Amino acid sequence: MRLLVLLWGCLLLPGYEALEGPKEISGFEGDTVSLQCTYREELRDHRKYWCRKGGFLLSRCSGTIYAGEEGQETTKGRVSIRDSHQELSLIVTLWNLTLQDAGKYWCGVDKRGLDESLLISLFVFPGSSRPPMQLDSTSAEDTSPALSSGSSKPRVSIPMVRILAPVLVLLSLLSAAGLIAFSSHLLLWRKEAQRATETQRNEKVCLSHLNHRTSELDPDEASEISSPTFISV
């Protein structure tokens, strides 16, 4: 009795994990989607196929497309399949999706008894619900001058700023040192000018004082002061 149950299970139930792949795929109208069903080594030489789920048992498929020889791509309508023995996988590609393509599909391997198969759900969304495309940073930088033609301010990249920063600091230090030296030179010049002015003023005062004294003396004394006296030896 147990042997009969085991034989009945082997005939009705597909092999455990004989096929692996995505349980569902999705896309928008007009998109192209691809999927990959991997199979076990013992199924390498068996014929593979892709079909839409229909009824049960013998009539469970519709629109079946069989894979050709190893590595050869087979196309039917907007569907193509290719069996790769090297990768142990069946690659399925669906082009130009429509809302009518949504449904359940079989990725299967033809064999005696019941086929090995994997049920995959395909979801197709309206093209009007597609989110707007976002530009990457490179394209945004390329199009920014065209979008903002009114402002033509040059942009300096961060690496350039890092390179120029030491140069700017050095120039600032040199400018400060030059300003300090100029201020010191200007201050020294002003002190020397003040000293020269005071010296001239003192000389004028002494000269006027001398003239005043000579005017108070007698003419003979004044002439003696003004004229040098020679002593004969």
From TrEMBL:
Pfam families on file: V-set
Residue ranges of the region described as Disordered: 133-153
The residues forming a coiled coil are none
Q: Where in the cell is it found?
A: Membrane
Q: Which GO terms describe its cellular component?
A: plasma membrane
Keyword set, alphabetical order: Disulfide bond, Membrane, Signal, Transmembrane, Transmembrane helix
Recorded GO MF terms: transmembrane signaling receptor activity
Q: Where is the Ig-like domain?
A: 14-121
| SUPFAM superfamilies tied to this protein | Immunoglobulin (SSF48726)
UniProt main location, coarse: membrane
Question: This protein is called what?
Answer: CD300 molecule like family member g
Q: Look up and give the organism this protein is from.
A: Pongo abelii (Sumatran orangutan)
Q: Its gene?
A: CD300LG
